[in-house]
User: Fold this.
Amino acid sequence: MDRHRSAERAPGDAGKGALTRVASTAHVPPAGHRARLHTVSPRGCVLTWLREASDLYADQPAVRGDGWLLRYRELDGRVREFAAALLDRDARRGDLIALSAGRSADLLAAALAVLRIGAVVCPVDLRQAPERTQRLLAGLRPRMILADESELATAAGAVSLSALSRHAAADQEAVDGSAGTVPGAQDLAYIEHTSGSTGRPKAVAVPHGALANVIAWTQHRYPIGVGDTLLHAGSLTYDICFWDILAPLCFGAAIALAPDGMEAEPAALAKFISDSQVTVLHFTPSLLAEFLDAADMAHLTNVRYAFCGGERLHCDLARRMLGSVPARLFNRYGPTETCIYVTDHEVTDQYLASESVPIGQPIWGITARVLDAQGLQVADGEPGVLHIGGTGLAWGYLDMSARTAAAFIPDPWSDVPGARLYRTGDIVRRRTDGLFEFLRRVDDQVKIRGVRVELAEVENALLRHPAVSAAALTITADQGQPVLVAHLVAAAASDDDIRSFLADQLPQAAIPAYYIRRRSLPKLPSGKTDRARLHGVGLPGRQAGATSAAPPLTETERRIAEIWSEVLKAEPVGRSDHFFQLGGQSLLAMRMIARVRRQFGIRVSARAIFDAPTVDVFSAFIDTMLTAQGPSSGEASESEVIPPPARHA
Assistant:
């Protein structure tokens, strides 16, 4: 390969090459829909496709949950209500609208309404890391914050979604007029936040043109339509969830909206997938591994497309997936600074001979260049840093012009004026067959369950604790999953105190699982921390609580101890046992909270375990919530706890 040649794919080239289909899962859309599939252009607009789908598929299922269903016309009615209410409150095209990142029919409709009036969707998780969330909101300065009723206290000035739709304007002409204006390719569609090494998360601004490009590619590469159902089990704070929502609703397919927290319960999620007749799945590899370990895959015969992304996909995991479900498996790659994903690859047996699966080739409109330290393109087979250009790029970082200029550099090989390349920081190589392979990172950025974590951001958060004078992080495997280990020089401060402090500062995936105290951190001659000497240090083992022999005293304590025993695979669990000393970490905390929500019928935040880490204290917290909620009928399904809101006249 010429040293100045890049990988690039244009719309006209994308369909070349045979695609292997599994006959048992072949899906043929209705004839009328098939004609529509071939009219989608990457230069079109997602809002146009959504409006057309609302008319074409008015009586088809659009969103289904655990025991409820919205058809396209019903969903469109709810979207119009929210759009009218937003216009009532002077929201206009280009305004930033912060939106709670939970999962509900109203939150989904509100996100579509924000897009419909030409405003910008800015997902924030109001249930995690309150100090970090306040920093995000201060940086965004949104026109308004939309939240679920239970989250209003976490953000000053937030507007309840139920109140918003109740006070929607009756005049729909303003909604139609606002929706009639098609946004330009460079108009913003959404903003996602990603980890920042300085401790300040970066707000990545993504335009409509990039969004349309990836949705159009989706429909070309793996068409979906009436009869398909896509699982939505993530949070809008991850950009893949825009694909989960928009790809089906543009083309007549349905969304299966998993109850909040179910993503942490593989067995319950597998049943929901089966009951909802889901045909399209997306997992990060770490969550896929958990899913395959714990779920009964025998009934997932409807699945025909399975997608992986967010982390390296290892070949042994791909083999397990292909052997468990009669679906086509695709590996996809894309940093937050590009729209959702920019390369993809269908995984078949011929690609399972090495350690990890290739990340594939660029999708429509995307340029991929592998550059060396001097900024020159390398030959096939040589490692270099992956740089992405073309239609899929974000604007850059909101209000961070210097960081934008450093990360998004001019593309000297492009004939397009102003063309840029995003420096991903991922070291890859392009094989002679044209496929790209991920090798490693150039820096200290890591992925924990698909969440991008900058070690420097976590270290800076640790150093903000008044008792911590020095901190460094390493990453290790715990029960097959990557976790963070904090090495600390700290005065008298318990692990619980530090965990609770970090829970206000960081997303759950970024909170270290282990804390090792040191008199000092090892140094290199340059004065930097010698991380190599931190690796291999023995981790604290599972510890029994000080009075673990004491059995639970109350019914709530008994039920909590039983849940902890199942999740942590430890028994017996006494009333003084400590969740984290029994081997708990953030993923297991999510799983435990999901079971508590389902068994007790309350919407408890995952933040609670950091403040109440022992069985007795956590149980007292649950009892307080139950008393405040009033009489309960006992175990409740998530759909009973958080039902879809009633329609408002």
